[in-house]
Amino acid sequence: MPSEHETVGAYALGILDDAEATAFEAHLAGCEWCAQQLDELAGMEPMLAALADLPGSGSTPAIGESLSAKPSPRLVEKLVDEVAEKRAQKRRRGFYMIAAAAALIIAGPLAAVAVDGGSDNGGQVTATPAQATFRTLSDKKSATDASTHVSATVAMAGKDWGTQAVLELKNVKGPLKCSLVLVAKNGQRVTMSSWSVPDWGYGVPGAKTEQSKQPLYIGGAAAFQPNEIDHFEVVTFEGKKLVQVDA
């Protein structure tokens, strides 16, 4: 069983099971090294997933050269090996799971909620890279659904490869599983990220705890340029639209 430090790549790709993810998150709360690694690895899921499924050594210069910010070859090789091994383990256990969590850009932050939901710290608010990036992006679009009363702001920035986005979500209560979906002008739909909403919710006005008062900040990315996007939707896994934000 690998140590928590060696689980960074698998956690960034969302291929850990619930118990493994929970154990790593507990470790992450007190490990600056792992937090820095997660920031560095954010957004590598599409590239590494492709590499891990290729035969041979996993060397794909064309993919690497297409990215504007590239990690070292040694780091890529290490992560490809780790992802391939994790996938093999899950096949032997009889299932294969790739989380629908955000595929963030390499230079961007890891998608993260705005508060620490653990009971150890009493719901103490913690800073997140996604929240910091949200503040730096100037192109923001907001909307509040008249029926659900859920509010969302999507901050975005165009990149050579597509669009980086960070969602701020308010006034939503759980338990829910949700996704941020990009709807392009040509009708295509792309899931940019997904997450769970706990019972106490996010950004709830008048909430009794700091946990519930704080919005959710979570990042994502897609291959469409900003001028190709029609709107964003926050939807539940059951298909209910909570809020729509026009691009």
UniProtKB/TrEMBL annotation:
- Whether Membrane counts among this entry's keywords is yes
Concerning InterPro entries, the annotation shows: Anti_sigma_zinc_sf, Znf_put
Kindly state which keywords UniProt assigns to this record, in alphabetical order: Membrane, Transcription, Transcription regulation, Transmembrane, Transmembrane helix
List, alphabetically, the Pfam families matched.
zf-HC2
Entry's transmembrane regions: 95-115
Domain Putative zinc-finger: residue ranges: 8-35
Q: What name does this protein carry? A: Zf-HC2 domain-containing protein
